[in-house]
Amino acid sequence: MDMMSLVVQLISGAAGGNAAGAALKNLSLGPVGNSIAGIVGGGLGGQLLGMLGAGGMGAAAAAGSGLDIGSIVSNVAGGGVGGAVLMAIVGLIRQQMSKS
């Protein structure tokens, strides 16, 4: 895992968290909360995707030839989805806690 991949995952995670917050108004944590949850989820989602092997070949190719489009797409997808999922989970937990 190189630093560029991590940065791409974190940025796409923040974007994914904010997109999910805009789509799921009742679960939104606000812009800052969505961004923080998205950044954490983006880092975790990207790491999980890499451990499952989806990002492994792209990372190996990127090490040999700089940065390839496959690894970038993989990092953006893993980070964005991870950010959106974690933001939704945190929003659901917050919503359930406020009901009681």
Topology of this structure?
Layout: H1 3-23, H2 30-51, H3 56-65, H4 69-99
Structure write-up:
The longest helix is centred in the C-terminal third of the chain and has 31 residues, at 69-99. 84% of the residues lie in helices and 0% in strands. By secondary structure, it is an all-alpha fold. The chain has one domain (3-95). The chain is elongated, with a radius of gyration of 14 Å. Helix 1 crosses helix 2 (30-51) and helix 3 packs across helix 4.
List keywords for this structure.
about 100 residues; elongated; mainly alpha
The best one-word shape is elongated
Percent helix? over 70%
Q: What value does the Rg take, in angstroms?
A: 14 Å
Q: Give the number of helices.
A: 4
- What is the oligomeric state here? single chain
What fraction of residues sit in β-strands?
under 5%
Number of domains: 1
Biggest β-sheet strands, sense, barrel: none
| SS-derived structural category | mainly alpha
The ordered string of helix (H) and strand (E) elements is HHHH
In round numbers, the mean pLDDT is 86
User: How far apart lie the N and C ends?
Assistant: 42 Å
Secondary structure: number of strands: 0
Q: Extract low-pLDDT stretches.
A: none
